[in-house]
């Protein structure tokens, strides 16, 4: 277990959260989203900034990080990555993209119902991990 693996894990979470932002932004003009989605979108840049700051501050010390710290960070970041992946997946399923057909948009509206609580839970958990 190395500091390089920790840096890689942080980068993976950053990519997923950034993808969630892009998905939201690409479809926000096309539909009215629930308050949960709007709140999450508003908070995602804060998490991205925190992760970028952590990555920047850990980078110079990545080779000197204790093994147990690397292991703990990697485990936490892997769990966070899984949650961020689920969040991105939900965003992709419920927010229509610009190339979606009318039928696909309708299906996404139907899928959106009831997803508010799930995205709130994921966001709360990701925030705690970060």
Structural class based on helices, strands and sheet pairing: mainly alpha
* Main beta sheet: none
Assembly form of the protein: single chain
- Distance between the first and last residues' Cα: 20 Å
Shape: elongated
Q: Any idea what the radius of gyration is?
A: 16 Å
Low-confidence stretches: none
State the helix count: 5
Mean pLDDT: 83
Give the proportion of residues in helices: over 70%
Encode the helix/strand succession as letters.
HHHHH
Question: Care to count the β-strands?
Answer: 0
Which tags fit this structure?
130 residues, mainly alpha, 79% helix
What does this structure look like?
- The two termini are 20 Å apart.
- The chain is mainly α.
- Helix 1 runs antiparallel to helix 2, helix 1 packs parallel to helix 3 (67-94) and helix 2 (35-58) runs parallel beside helix 5 (115-129).
- Helices cover 79% and strands 0% of the residues.
- The chain has helices at residues 3-27, 35-58, 67-94, 102-112, 115-129.
- The mean pLDDT is 83.
- The chain has five helices and no strands.
- The radius of gyration is 16 Å and the shape is elongated.
């Amino acid at each position: 277990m190395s500091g390089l693996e920790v840096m890689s894990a942080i980068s993976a979470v950053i990519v997923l959260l950034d993808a969630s932002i892009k998905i939201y932004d690409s479809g926000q003009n096309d539909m009215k989203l629930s308050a949960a989605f709007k709140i999450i979108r508003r908070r995602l840049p804060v998490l991205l900034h925190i992760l970028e700051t952590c990555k920047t501050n850990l980078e110079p010390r990545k080779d000197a990080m204790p093994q147990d710290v690397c292991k703990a960070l990697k485990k936490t970041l892997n769990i966070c990555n899984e949650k961020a992946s689920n969040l991105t997946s939900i965003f992709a399923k419920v927010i229509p993209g610009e190339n979606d057909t009318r039928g696909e948009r309708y299906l996404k509206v139907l899928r959106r119902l009831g997803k508010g609580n799930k995205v709130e839970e994921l966001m709360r958990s990701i925030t705690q991990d970060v």
